[in-house]
Amino acid sequence: MPSTNVAATAVPANTPKRQTRFMDVKKKLKKSAVLYLIIAPVVVYFAIWAYWPMYGVQIAFKNFMPGVGIWGSPWAGFHHFERLFNSYYFGPIVRNTIAISLYSILIGIPTPIILALMFNELRSKRFKTIAQTISYAPHFISVVVAVGMLLFFLSPTNGVINALIELFGGTPKSFLSQPGSFWSIFVWSGTWQGIGWASLIYTAAMSGISPDQYEAAYIDGASKFRRIWHITLPGIAPTIVILSILSVGGIMSVGHEKILLLQNGLNLETSEVISTYVYKSGIQNAQYSFSAAIGLFNNVINFAILLLVNTVARRINETSLW
Amino acid sequence: MNAIRRTASEKLFDYINVFLVLVILLVILYPLLFVVFASVSDPRLMFEHPLLLWPKGFNVESYAKVFENKDIWMSYKNTILYTFVGTMINIIMTTIGAYPLSRRHFYGKGIFTFLFTFTMFFSGGLIPSYLVNKQLGIVNTMWVLVLPGAVSVFNLIIMRTYFQTRIPVELEESAYVDGANDFHLLYKVVLPLSTPIIAVMLLFYGVGHWNSYFEAMIYLSDRSLFTLQLILREILVQNQMDSMLSVSVDEQYAERMIVKEGLKYAVVVVSSLPLLIIYPMLSKFFEKGILVGAIKG
């Protein structure tokens, strides 16, 4: 009978196959055994400091009470999110976050590229190296010192900028107590500190472009600007795309470290962003669940934007994060 | 590029380019030079005319004040300790995380890579992390500054790529044939060949520890544990903000402020100089490190 025949042949054929696959996996696991041992502490690290906090995110939907722990705290549903969306500061902190991000991206992406192009055109190798090394010195200065130095320059009583203004007959200003100048102060001081370091990755990418291409273009009569436009820029395009995806993906996150230092009561209306608000309501006022909700809202939107931008980039020019 | 002969307009382009680069370097460098000049200038002269192209007068009193300041000394010592311990942990953890991921026969490589890199793009956030550290009981100890950031995924990927691309496969294979296991391979073959990338990591992580203030600010309450950046924050930012916002300015107040001002410049120099001296020496290494990272972002 054909039906039993099929069954009879199917069963014995299946078992050894499964067995060999099992043996195969066992062999592979055994071969990697030492590697598992080596990587184990790192896995433990990520479990504790990356995935445990992700588990803890559920307090955003609970009324967290330290006494009973995360698990024992009662559920609150979307209460904290509703409170956030209905509060009067929700609009301003989202606006400030996006505005500061966009301003940073608009300045922060092109300026290091331009600087790298200028370095790349320097004919003396020695001068190029020295110039580049000097250009990223500010990268090694801490945020605290950078803000401290900014205050030396912007101080209304004895700041350098105001001394310059007075020299040219103007009246000194208290820059940091004016909400209108906060974004520019934040972005341009960041440019001072980061431009050289950010340009490094572009000069590294440019050094990978073959000199033959430039020579061929030269023989064809391409001018310097055409060579930059048609050879150098396309050569670093993948790097530009990757870095742009990352910065656009982080549009809803403005680091709190520098803003907290630059903030004061007078510039709060333009300087309060989501991350500083999370810090204040969570750490300073111990409203754990509420600020975890703000943080979660922020992370989810960031992640969604990153996915979106990455997909768009992949469709358009085949360069993407993954 | 030498085969390309320059036309007159291209020569002009080069001159303008060099000029612009010099201007940019001056703008970048001036604030740093200003602080150095200001720190050795007479604070009273400085206060009246803050514009400096060269030190005004001469005094080392500000530096003497910095060295007399107990807070600065104590926090300097703490920062050296935290930076040392933290960077050691970083290097060990990053190496043992990156090495298995660089092995071709490592079974489950994809899962580990995904679990690690996912944390770059999504995290629990500030508050859940804060609660974890609280629950672990490491708040207000050195460990809260060195353990939670033990591995940076970005650095881990750079290191993995280095191991993948810069260690000759033949070397590994012959080691396996000789009966070495992965553990031996790591510290007998791979590590000795990895000094450039380890130098890069030392600098990246070390700078991070030396310069961070936020973690110390939220987790440390015991003043004897404070880091240099926390003390700097008090001296440079909080006092300055207070004085900027206060309305009443009396005679004594101005005198006090002038003396304080000199101290600020000196303390910036004392705190930032170590890194500014070290980084040019390592620059060759980390320009390469960035190149490695750039190839396989």
TrEMBL record, chain A:
Q: Where are the transmembrane segments?
A: 33-52, 98-119, 140-165, 185-207, 228-252, 288-309
Check the record and name the Pfam families matching this protein: BPD_transp_1 (PF00528)
Print the keywords alphabetically.
Cell membrane, Membrane, Transmembrane, Transmembrane helix, Transport
Q: What is its main location?
A: membrane
Q: Which GO terms describe its biological process?
A: transmembrane transport
Subcellular location as annotated: Cell membrane
Q: Which InterPro entries match?
A: MetI-like, MetI-like_sf, UgpAE/MalFG_permease
In what residue span(s) does the ABC transmembrane type-1 domain sit? 94-309
How does this chain sit within the bilayer? Multi-pass membrane protein
Q: Member of which family?
A: Belongs to the binding-protein-dependent transport system permease family.
Task: Name the chain's protein.
Answer: Sugar ABC transporter permease
Q: What is the lineage of its organism?
A: Bacteria, Bacillati, Bacillota, Bacilli, Bacillales
Automatic annotation (TrEMBL), chain B:
Q: Does the keyword Cell membrane apply?
A: yes
A Gene Ontology cellular component where this protein is annotated is: plasma membrane
UniProt entry tagged with the keyword Membrane: yes
The record ties this protein, via Pfam families, to:
BPD_transp_1
Q: Name one GO biological process term.
A: transmembrane transport
Query: TM spans, by residue?
Result: 12-40, 80-99, 111-132, 138-158, 185-207, 263-282
Record PROSITE patterns = ABC_TM1
Keywords for the protein's UniProt record, in alphabetical order = Cell membrane, Membrane, Transmembrane, Transmembrane helix, Transport
Q: What membrane topology does this protein have?
A: Multi-pass membrane protein
SUPFAM superfamilies in alphabetical order: MetI-like
Q: What is its main location?
A: membrane
User: What is the superkingdom listed in this entry's lineage?
Assistant: Bacteria
Residue ranges of every copy of the ABC transmembrane type-1 domain listed in the record? 76-286
Where located? Answer: Cell membrane
UniProt lists the family membership as follows: Belongs to the binding-protein-dependent transport system permease family.
* Name the UniProt record assigns to this protein: Carbohydrate ABC transporter permease
The organism's lineage is: Bacteria, Bacillati, Bacillota, Bacilli, Bacillales
